[in-house]
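User: Predict the full complex structure for these chains.
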Amino acid sequence: MTGQTASYTVRASEFSRLLVATEVVRILQGGTWLTSGSLRDWPLFDLGTAAWPIVPQEPKKHWQSLPLHADQTGAEANLSRSTTYASPTVVIGKDDHMERLEIAASRGDERAFLDAQTAVNWAERPATDFLRAIHLALAAGAHMAARNLATQGTARYPDDPELEKYARVLAPPRMLPNSPRSNSGLRANRDWLMANGAKYRGQWVALRQGELLGVGDSLHALINEVGSTDGILFTKAH
Amino acid sequence: MLLRFTDGEPFATGAVPYVYRPVTDRESSPRVILDVRLGKIETSAFLDTGGVYLFCSPELVPSLDLDPRDGIPTQPLQLGRGRYEGVLHRIRLTIIAEEGDDLSIEPTVFIPRLEPGQEWPDEFPCILGMQGCLERLRFAIDPNDDTFYFGDLAQAD
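Assistant: Here is the predicted structure of the two-chain assembly.
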């Protein structure tokens, strides 16, 4: 019970003796009714020997009526139930919307992720939730959703550098200024690969204008051997 | 000759011959393989219009001068028969033209991080996916002479 917000409704049949004025004051001031543990404190009816916190009844929150989630652990379920022993309503203590996103991501279920995403009121979410949701979208294979969340997040939190980075990396491809044509040996290289590729299959080759400059097991070693990268095609022979 | 719309506006601003053959010993289906430039390295890449991002061979990564602080971690992505951990970055990608102009874009690139003992499929060059990579390009292929035509969609804006 310690630390839990519990409610207790005293029924008339348990409270039939009259309280003396000092007891009423103690209850109102302390919010708890302490007994010594002796039955003599309660000659007529025993309400127990523990400390009973008396707190105002709060209106039931909407999530208190949700069913236990299938993935909720037994410990969590027991804890949830223990907080409402006098009115046994199941409580989900976690953020249900984010939890649904996490479950969809863990299953790689893109459709479920998108359904869960649309149920979230993102206008009320902090930047950390956007970042978490982007990661979950990527895990679910919902790459477009990840982009949209990053765009939405950085629009809402324009000063958040992390969200800005995510939005930049996931943005649609940016067109860069056109470059003049840079290589006139493409067809010669293609013809060389078609004619000779099978002989070097799986190895890196360096080609310039259809001429073989070198062969290597690793790209790094081949670049060092050739000594330049300008105008040279480095590819795996295929 | 580059492709044009009926009103004379260009559909494609560049064209390049492609290689049409399987990229692995395990595959029998041929792929459209192009020459591209990543950073300072000219290399090969094949089209995968059902894929996402630009996938990059780990051997190319040291030549790309990427700043690790600019990347974002992502969950493992499926490639062929393997799943690979990696980081998403932005990088300059140029499709090299034989006719017309080269075309440069800045797509999202998946940089794999291999686990100890994990190998990148040997036969894979880079892979040009649709979302995050080719989605803002016009492109067409002519199987008659194995030519890949490409243009900047932004020209229509």
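The first helix of chain A runs from residue 21 to 30.
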